[in-house]
Write a structure and sequence with these properties.
Blueprint lengths: L1 H39 L2 E4 L3 E9 L2 E8 L1 H12 L1 H18 L1
Antiparallel strand pairs: 1-2, 2-3
Helix pairs in contact: 1-2, 1-3
Length: 101
Amino acid sequence: MDTERGSGLAVGLVSACSLVMAILVLGTVAMLLAAQAFTNGNTIGIPVLVTFDGSRAMVDAPSVHISGSVAGMVGSVLLLALPLPLWFIGLTRREQTATSE
């Protein structure tokens, strides 16, 4: 019983860490793309997720307009965060079946 509870706790911890890592990776990429659009005044678009529309109306005043989809970002975070916990669950189940045999 204790190994099942410990395994569940470990899976929860791995899932939480995986979710945080996915959010941080997407946040970092988004900030880098926004900086690129702001600096060069160009438009960068990622379908379904976000569009960074940089403009240079005046030489000394660059700007960037960011428009995106919350559902697309949530889907991307989940797709990035899902493989690590699934791998960990498979690994712990494989170890449990090996020790029970």
